[in-house]
Specification:
The complex is a heterodimer of chains A (113) and B (113). Chain A is built from no helices and 11 strands. With 113 residues, chain A is an all-beta fold. In chain A, strands 2, 4, 5, 6, 9, 10 and 11 form a 7-stranded mixed beta sheet that branches. Chain A has a 4-stranded antiparallel beta sheet with strand order 1-3-8-7, with no helix packed on it. Chain A is globular, with a radius of gyration of 13 Å. Helices cover 0% and strands 51% of the residues of chain B. Chain B is globular. Classes of the chains: A mainly beta (113), B mainly beta (113). The A-B interface holds A 4, 6, 33, 40-45, 48, 55-56, 58, 91, 93, 98-99, 101-107, 109 and B 4, 9, 32, 34, 36, 41-46, 49, 51, 90, 92, 94, 96, 98, 100-106.
Chain lengths: 113, 113
């Protein structure tokens, strides 16, 4: 169990650019989640996958955001045409079936200039 | 929809003193309950969880939490805090099934010598 890994840890980009983040879950976990966390807030759910199927997307996930998990293993989260309001910590978590706790990565901190 | 309230935004305690962090949830039935801790720039680490059974649950790092159905509360406690406990603490609820994990806004814990 090597834990949930996220890359990069930090991303600084100019407004309007596209960014992509990667998450490698714990290998035996079939559920993968993305969250966004802004300063002083708890994580807010964005989307989740069971294996390769994206089962739910939050209304927070505008059409500029897209997430994939092509082979049911790692996942990517892409933000197109970034805006100032996208600055946040993006957290990935993975979990097993049902009520099993989610295990979080260290996140990717996105800063928009 | 479920919700979580952590009424204390910031708590300061002296090293060696006892600690109680409050968490109240709103949900029609008894959900699964979690406490996570987050150090600056890091992801979330699971401290403990309540699924059913004994209402007093033990976690890592000497933490415990008590589920009180009548008060819809799941308060986190530690008899004697250490300087390394300084962090942000999040309570979270999960109703089950395909529902999402919902976090409170967190309580920042500061430890003074």
């Amino acid at each position: 169990d090597t834990g949930v890994s996220q890359d990069p840890r930090h991303k600084i980009t100019k407004r309007g650019q596209n960014v992509t983040f990667r998450c490698d879950p714990i290998s035996e976990h079939n559920r993968l989640y993305w969250y966004r966390q802004t300063l002083g807030q708890g994580p807010e759910f964005l989307t989740y996958f069971q294996n390769e199927a994206q089962l739910e997307k939050s209304r927070l996930l505008s059409d500029r955001f897209s997430a994939e998990r092509p082979k049911g293993s790692f996942s990517t989260l892409e933000i197109q045409r970034t805006e100032q309001g996208d600055s946040a910590m993006y957290l990935c978590a993975s979990g097993g079936q049902g009520n099993q706790p989610q295990h979080f990565g260290d996140g990717t901190r996105l800063s928009i200039l | 929809a479920q919700s979580v309230t952590q009424p204390d935004i910031h708590i300061t305690v002296s090293e060696g003193a006892s600690l109680e962090l409050r968490c109240n949830y709103s949900y029609g039935a008894t959900p699964y309950l979690f406490w996570y801790v987050q150090s600056p720039g890091q992801g979330l680490q699971l401290l403990l969880k309540y699924f059913s059974g004994d209402t007093l649950v033990q976690g890592i790092k000497g933490f415990e939490a008590e589920f009180k159905r009548s008060q819809s509360s799941f308060n986190l406690r530690k008899p004697s805090v250490h300087w390394s406990d300084a962090a942000e603490y999040f309570c979270a609820v999960y109703p089950g099934g395909n529902e999402k994990l919902t976090f409170g806004t967190g309580t920042r814990l500061t430890i003074i010598p």
